Predict the 3D structure of the following.
Amino acid sequence: MCSEQEPHLLAAVTRLKSQLSELIEPDFGLLDQLLSLKVLTNRQFASIRSKPTVFERNDAVLDLMTSEDDCCRLLTALQRTHQQHIINVITQNESKTDSDFNARYCAKSGTCCWNICLFLCLYPLSFPPFI
């Protein structure tokens, strides 16, 4: 999944953590994939699964991303769980600042996921303004 062209995944995941926490869907196979890819241990899996909200589960997963390899395996898990839009957010924003997030991702015609646009419409103050 990852290539040498994506050397800054950890920085991107760290910088975009608050946005990713709102967008990732952990409950329909992502945690299982992370366990099978050995990103999570059984104990971490159980701990994350027991978190009461999606946001807390996502925060716990993202907190465990401590290496480029972990982030690469996260992208693989996202791909396997049909969350390509999240992969696009991460890889298209590797070298960008948070203020570029909305404009660079949603302004591109045809690349914006409906769920992300809906989220941005419902929670516009959660993200930097459009440029």
